């Protein structure tokens, strides 16, 4: 893992944000947290992130909507989508939109870390 990997965590639940933040920081990542897609998009961090971990169900703009918008704008930033409501149709929409992983809450820390490894490897390939 490069020391400069910045992970942006988007979830409207402050407890989920804090838990993911603590996990990722304990593994040496730089973590920025956001309560909404709009907050993320209005920050300078949105263009300097190595990976986005976003909740599917957020007010105003869902994680899938954010992913679709960023892809339409030419961003290749890897996305991991998480949700408390992991049904198959949502999973398919997330993967078709370009998500690297789709995890149902609650998830095991090792599953998130495996997804993050895949996402960062995919991001490295797009930088070459």
From TrEMBL:
<dbReference type="InterPro" id="IPR050595">
    <property type="entry name" value="Bact_response_regulator"/>
</dbReference>
<protein>
    <submittedName>
        <fullName>Response regulator</fullName>
    </submittedName>
</protein>
<dbReference type="InterPro" id="IPR011006">
    <property type="entry name" value="CheY-like_superfamily"/>
</dbReference>
<keyword id="KW-0597">Phosphoprotein</keyword>
<feature type="modified residue" description="4-aspartylphosphate">
    <location>
        <position position="55"/>
    </location>
</feature>
<dbReference type="InterPro" id="IPR001789">
    <property type="entry name" value="Sig_transdc_resp-reg_receiver"/>
</dbReference>
<dbReference type="Pfam" id="PF00072">
    <property type="entry name" value="Response_reg"/>
</dbReference>
<feature type="domain" description="Response regulatory">
    <location>
        <begin position="6"/>
        <end position="120"/>
    </location>
</feature>
